[in-house]
Amino acid sequence: MFDKLSLSGYRGKIGEGFDLIKVSELLSAFSVYTGEGSKIAIGMDKKISSNMIKSCIISCLIAGGNEIYDTGVVTTANLQLFIKEKRLNAGIMIGGFGNEDINGIRFFRGDGLQLNENEMQGVLNIYHLKRYDFSKWDKLGKVITVNYAKEIYFDHLMKAFPGIVNIIKDKKFKIKITGTYNNIKEYFQIGSKKFGFKIVKNNADVIFEINSDGSLSMIKIKDKEIDSYNILPFIILMSSEKIKKVVTNFSSSFMLKDIDNIELIETKAGMANISEKVLNEMADLGGEGCGSILFPEFVYGYDVFATSILILALLAKEKELDKIINSIPDYFYYKKMIKLKSENINNVMYNLRNQLNKKYRIIKADGIKISDKDYWITIRPSNTEDVIRIIGQAKKKEKIKKVIKAIEKSIKKIME
Amino acid sequence: MAISDLKISVSGIRATTGDTLTPQLILKFAMGFGTYIKGGKVVVGRDSRVSGDMVKNAVFSGLLATGCEVVDLGICMVSTVHVMVKKLKAKGGIAITASHNPVEWNALKFVNKEGIILPPEEAEELFNIVNNEKFINVSYKDIKNIKQDFSGKETHIKLVLKNIPVQLIKNKKFKVVVDCVNGGGSETVPEFLKNLGCEVIALNTIPDGIFPHHPEPLDKNLTQIKEEVKKQKADIGFAVDADADRLGVIDENGVFAGEEMTLALAAYYALSEFKTSITTNLSSSSILDWVAQKNNVKIYRSKVGEANVVKLMKSKNSGLAGEGGGKVIFPPVTMSADSLSAMGLILSLLALKNKKISEIINEFPKVYTIKHRLETGNKNVYYILNNLKKEFKDENINTEDGIKIIRDKGWIHIRPSNTEPIIRIIVETMSQQLTQEYLNEVLNKIN
């Protein structure tokens, strides 16, 4: 059984914990938060359960007197862009959580950014107090079906990055897409016509490996694999000196720190935190080690299609490609996820911090961070699941092994 | 909000928009229904109410969560939902309609796989599931789709036409005024009448849920159609409610025939033509006894409520049933109140008799009825009824649904409302004065 209501929204396993009534109450709370008469866009991924959730959301938003713009199956970035372009008050995205059996919702505000923690807390306060308002019959909301959301997306993409169409078209790239990218398949199909690339199965110039949550887990260029951690630094290097200020989370790659002449701002993990920091700091780029990148001149949200297109544009322009690719170091990465009961997470984090503090220099950031000149490790509770994520990077594997063992031992002891 | 605060009855659940009709409530009942029928195909239709879209989406969501395949009929008559459940061999149906209630109301009516409103014992099982919130939640692999099917109107019309003398009616070229109150019958009702060769003057046929008057086909709500019938020199006028299950009849002089007359007129034709028994409720007019007696067939009476009437109708194999208030159930078409069937039978009568509708109405005995609604305040409804049973114990009484006192010159039916904390008192005699005296007698005893 799994479901989680958090400051990131709601998610759960369909049929085993996902609670539709909880979703409807959360939506009625959100409707109170946005106010009667709000214009709210909804988008969804292709999961079959998304239709079920959409009907529930529509019902609650109509009951709250809202005007609903149903954009159909779109990416989160597309929805965010639509909200901003159409000057709506808010948005809701259904899906985007990886596996077919998991689904959920996230909330967005009028400027297209995901609700930050304070704003989401406001929604949850209404939810917990059950202070819902329902409109009278003559003030009920309505649904407007939108079939032009993708057009707005492509138009805006081309306006945001003028000239990229011709640059990419000239190169006639052959690209291959692997991974579970069903939700954005249509974007690549439309994109192939607009940007003149071919989607092939073999002999591709570039391979994009896309996770089911819409992040880039790997790109492969000239037989060189660039894994998710190095995609953000790779884009910065390829952009020559255009990018001056970058926002990332506390688990950023050594490679990012090694780049000269950029200001690196670290913040808590998650799109809501990164995008807001990018906005407030007027940064040029934002992203995380999972291969999710945000281009503020386009949209304040992670966008794997735009990332892929911009990588193609950079490849088309860059003369020193080989040099850049060869400069990507082979660092060691460590990722682990420890499943815990929701009620134990804070206790584990508290005790772990105390124990590790005796041996290591702890940085209190987003969870716990241990940092050394040759390695770093972050330990933090997930925003969306009942798990603790341990992520680390080391210039050499043996440098980090000892610390990881100590952390795992401590967690085991605390759990006993 | 506690579920006990709602209007829950054998007819389904009813609530008001912006108040008790919440998405959460609807979702729970839809999930409850999906759990009760254990998945499968469910037909969903709605009347034209503004809140219909909100309710429909919550219903869809709840049904999908429990593994049901949803067939969306769109805006339609309530009886079309019943017809389509049978036609599509569905496991059940949900009609979203508050029938004759004002615009701010909406409701869910649950239909079982036989195409009938859930009988009381089945409805109770559903309510238990909802109260305990023990819903099935299927895995993502078992979530089905929503299919749209707008063929219900045509299927329904064809079914009625198959069971009435179409040519007989067509030959008469009746001029008919119909008031659809911008409800669920706005498309189907005029279309049906055109199929019978009628010249149709249709009023209020935009199904936007903005009712031009209170949707209950009662005399006080039918000013527009009464005037139009006279102006158009029409043969007859028909007024339906928001989901077109109830039918009011207006004669060629623009006079409302009375809410008890719809079933009586339909029975006048059907009982003679099909030599069948009739089932109605204990509160319906004794005019029906006269029609049954005239045709030498039996009349059966059940507790008030469509579910109760249908249950008895099935057990007695009656070829016609219904209730006062304009509800006619014609089993060859559907086992639910259906204004198309009612119109078809009444037009058949009109064609067969070759008389004006006012002349046919005049053939019926004249009765005087009062329907009194007694607010009981803090007094317990059942305490009052028990006391009345003692007061009238020496008379000919029926205690199946409250208490019905049957006398030589008329009857008094005193019963608790299914939906509100009130007592309904229905009195009928052959004289206006006596009817009033009977009512006063009961009120005095209660006081």
What's the helix and strand layout?
The complex is a heterodimer of chains A (416) and B (447).
Chain A lengths: L2 E4 L2 E5 L6 H15 L4 E6 L3 H16 L3 E7 L2 H10 L4 E5 L7 E8 L7 H13 L12 E4 L3 H12 L3 H8 L2 E6 L5 H11 L2 E2 L6 E5 L5 E6 L2 E4 H11 L6 E5 L4 H5 L4 E5 L3 H11 L3 E4 L3 E3 L9 H14 L3 H6 L5 E8 L5 H15 L2 E4 L1 E5 L3 E7 L5 E8 L2 H19 L1
Parallel strand pairs in A: 3-4, 3-5, 4-7, 8-9, 8-10, 13-14, 13-15
Antiparallel strand pairs in A: 1-2, 2-6, 5-6, 10-11, 11-12, 15-16, 17-21, 18-19, 19-20, 20-21
Chain B lengths: L6 E3 L2 E5 L6 H15 L2 E7 L5 H14 L2 E8 L2 H10 L4 E5 L8 E8 L7 H13 L13 E3 L3 H10 L4 H7 L2 E5 L8 H8 L3 E5 L19 H10 L3 E5 L6 E4 L10 H14 L3 E4 L5 H8 L4 E4 L3 H11 L3 E4 L3 E3 L9 H15 L3 H6 L5 E8 L5 H11 L5 E2 L4 E5 L2 E7 L5 E8 L2 H15 L1
Parallel strand pairs in B: 3-4, 3-5, 4-7, 8-9, 8-10, 12-13, 12-14
Antiparallel strand pairs in B: 1-2, 2-6, 5-6, 10-11, 14-15, 16-20, 17-18, 18-19, 19-20
Q: What would you say about this model in short?
A:
Chain A has 14 helices and 21 strands.
Structure description:
The complex is a heterodimer of chains A (416) and B (447). Chain A is an alpha/beta fold and 416 residues long. Chain A has 14 helices and 21 strands. Chain A has helices spanning 20-34, 48-63, 76-85, 117-129, 149-160, 164-171, 185-195, 228-238, 254-258, 271-281, 304-317, 321-326, 345-359, 397-415, and strands at 3-6, 9-13, 39-44, 67-73, 90-94, 102-109, 142-145, 174-179, 198-199, 206-210, 216-221, 224-227, 245-249, 263-267, 285-288, 292-294, 332-339, 362-365, 367-371, 375-381, 387-394. Chain A has a seven-stranded mixed sheet with strand order 1-2-6-5-3-4-7, sandwiched between helices. A five-stranded mixed sheet of chain A has the order 9-8-10-11-12, covered by helices on one side. A five-stranded antiparallel sheet of chain A has the order 17-21-20-19-18, with helices on one face. In chain A, helix 1 packs across helix 4 (117-129), helix 3 (76-85) crosses helix 5 and helix 6 (164-171) packs across helix 11 (304-317). Chain A is globular and about 65 Å long. By secondary structure, chain B is α/β, with parallel strands linked by helices. Chain B folds into three domains: 3-150, Alpha-D-Glucose-1,6-Bisphosphate, subunit A, domain 3 (Alpha-D-Glucose-1,6-Bisphosphate, Chain A, domain 3), CATH 3.40.120.10; 155-361, Alpha-D-Glucose-1,6-Bisphosphate, subunit A, domain 3 (Alpha-D-Glucose-1,6-Bisphosphate, Chain A, domain 3, 3-Layer(aba) Sandwich), CATH 3.40.120; 368-446, TATA-Binding Protein. Chain B is built from 15 helices and 20 strands. Chain B has helices at residues 23-37, 52-65, 78-87, 120-132, 152-161, 166-172, 188-195, 223-232, 261-274, 287-294, 306-316, 339-353, 357-362, 381-391, 432-446, and strands spanning 7-9, 12-16, 40-46, 68-75, 92-96, 105-112, 146-148, 175-179, 199-203, 236-240, 247-250, 278-281, 299-302, 320-323, 327-329, 368-375, 397-398, 403-407, 410-416, 422-429. Chain B has a seven-stranded mixed sheet with strand order 1-2-6-5-3-4-7, with helices on both faces. In chain B, strands 16-20-19-18-17 form a five-stranded antiparallel sheet, with helices on one face. Chain B has a four-stranded mixed sheet with strand order 9-8-10-11, sandwiched between helices. In chain B, helix 1 crosses helix 2 (52-65), helix 1 (23-37) packs across helix 4 and helix 5 packs parallel to helix 7 (188-195). The longest helix of chain B is centred in the first third of the chain and has 15 residues, at 23-37. At the A-B interface, helix 1 and helix 2 of A face helix 1 and helix 2 of B.
